C-alpha cells in the first residue's frame, strides 16, 4: 500500500463519525443490500457486497437520508477516496 493511500485511509477513519447502529441497520434492511446506483442505472436488483456510503461525501453526516448502500464496484468507480476498512465488516 502506498504512503498516500495509507494516510488517506487514516484521515478518512479519523474524520468518520460513527453511524448510529440503528440507522445503519435500517439502511441495510431497507436496501436489502441492493446497490442504489446499480439499480437506478442498470436495473440490477441483485444482492451485492458493499458498504454504506455518505451521499454528500461527508463522513461526519450520519443522517439516515444521507446514507445509501453501495456495492464495491460502485464505490471504487465513483468515490475511491472513500473506500474504507469497514467494507469487510459490513459484507459479512
Ligand atoms: Zn453498484
Structural notes for this entry:
48% of the residues lie in helices and 11% in strands. It has helices at 3-15, 21-31, 36-42, 72-78, 86-91, and strands spanning 50-54, 67-71. The protein is mainly α and 92 residues long. It has one domain. Bound molecules: zinc ion.
Give short descriptive properties of this protein:
binds zinc ion; 11% strand; 92 residues
Any ligands, ions or cofactors bound here, and which? zinc ion
One letter per element, helices H and strands E, the order comes to HHHEEHH
Per DSSP E runs of 2 or more residues, the count of β-strands stands at 2
Largest sheet: 2 strands, antiparallel
Give the proportion of residues in helices: 40-55%
Measured distance between first and last alpha carbons = 23 Å
**Overall number of domains:** 1
Question: Quick recap of the structure?
Answer:
48% of the residues lie in helices and 11% in strands.
Task: Furnish the topology, listing elements before pairings.
Layout: H1 3-15, H2 21-31, H3 36-42, E1 50-54, E2 67-71, H4 72-78, H5 86-91
Antiparallel strand pairs: 1-2
The protein binds zinc ion.
Residues 35, 37-38, 70-71, 73-74 line the site of zinc ion (ZN).
